[in-house]
Amino acid sequence: MNIKFYNTLTRQKENFNPIKSGEVSIYTCGPTVYDRSHIGNFRTFLFEDILKRILQLVGYKVKHVMNITDVDDKTIKKANDESKTLAEITSKYTAEFMEDLAMLKILPADEFPVATNHIQEMIVMISTLIKNGNAYTTDNGSVFFSIESYKDYGKLAQLDLKGLKQTERVSSDEYTKDHPQDFALWKAWKEEDGDVSWDSPWGKGRPGWHMECSVMSTQYLGNHFDIHCGGVDNIFPHHENEIAQSCAALNTQFVNIWMHSEHLIMADEKMSKSLGNIKTIPELLADGHSNESLRFALISSHYRSKLAFSNNKLEDAKKSVHRINELYHKLQKIADAGNTMPDEFDQFIEILVDDLNTPKALGVLFNYVRKLNRKIDNDKLSKKEASIGLNFLNKADIILSILKKQDDIPENIVQLVTQRESARKEKNWKLSDDLREELKKKGWIVEDLPDGTKCYPL
How much is the pLDDT for 416? Predict the structure, then answer.
């Protein structure tokens, strides 16, 4: 199968050929655990989930590593602001991140390396860069990478170093590409760091953010691996600096394909904490949105296009998820045994392996849904056709994960359904209707059938 991905490094779609036949190595930049991740962050994490699911579905063995940044400027500031230890802050938000991954049905990485567990390996890489002439120490015990020492610096972000003013160096983890600068590999301890420090050949301090990912990715995937993912905001300086220090230290290509997702925006703005317009996953679920509708909303636009996120978008996603689930449960009642797939499924997959074109693939799926619904409405759908349709939906859901099956129903919803069944047996129709309305408010539909009550999401 011809798989193509857009490579940020070359600014074009390329045929995907893994380094090792039948296997794919992927590194995705994980959260900086100083606060709860918001829906904008999960736009990127979900694009990476779709990428992984597609590769697995077409037969690849995927090794996926996602780091946890538990020491940097932001985590230290948060610990200081709340008068807590760094570990107290980072363990809390790491646990919340794992909860949010599960709520959105995002497949967990094979490894979640934590930065503070790899300090010594970072010191080794920094020492190599100094030895190679790519890095230098300062009087206070910091270490900086010299961007002039790496001839390909700026290739990922397409910087014109000749046309830009270069300042001496920058200690901050994040800065703009308007002024490319020598960046920190090791930051000398300062008073506001408190007890956050490690001993090194250059004195007490801590690693720079960019160094963390270079070490953790190569520690788990090797010095040269297939795919590195993140959001477009990671292109510069983070991924640009990763490339420079990794290639200079390891003398390898480092990564073959760089993939980046665009921003999620609200009211024509980028969603961010500074603007105060963010929502977390628990907040959105508490607003009555299901995890399936959140997933659908986040994949309904191509990952390289900005995603306009709004209540209307969520309502449309809710209706779409309901239509698919409604058809799924209708097909279950009609379908016969069989494992035949429709031609539309091949088309669905071919579109997805062409740079993860989820909106176009969803178009194929919904055309098929409409076709089956018309046959059901006219009582012309055979058991075999229902079986084929059911197979398509089940297979597509390996990637989409938006079907709600009976064994997926939350315990509180099961209890309400049970109460309603009891009310019906006692012919307490008012209570039965009230419970139906309560279930509807919680996003669930109940159907009373000869073989029992069926429940599925709106």
Answer: 86
Threshold 0.70, pTM exceeds: yes
- Type of residue found at 287: D
> CB 104: neighbour CB atoms within 10 A?
21
Q: Which of the residue ranges 152-166, 187-201, 291-305, 335-349 would you say has the lowest mean pLDDT?
A: 152-166
Strands 182-188 and 205-207: antiparallel
CB of 45 closer than 8 Å to CB of 8: no
Which pair of tokens denotes residue 426?
């006692």
Beta bridge partners of 257: 227
Crossing angle (nearest 10°) for helices 240-250 and 209-221? 60
**196 and 171 Cβ atoms separated by less than 8 Å:** no
Q: How far apart are CA 260 and CA 43, in angstroms?
A: 11
Write down the mean pLDDT value for the chain. Answer: 92
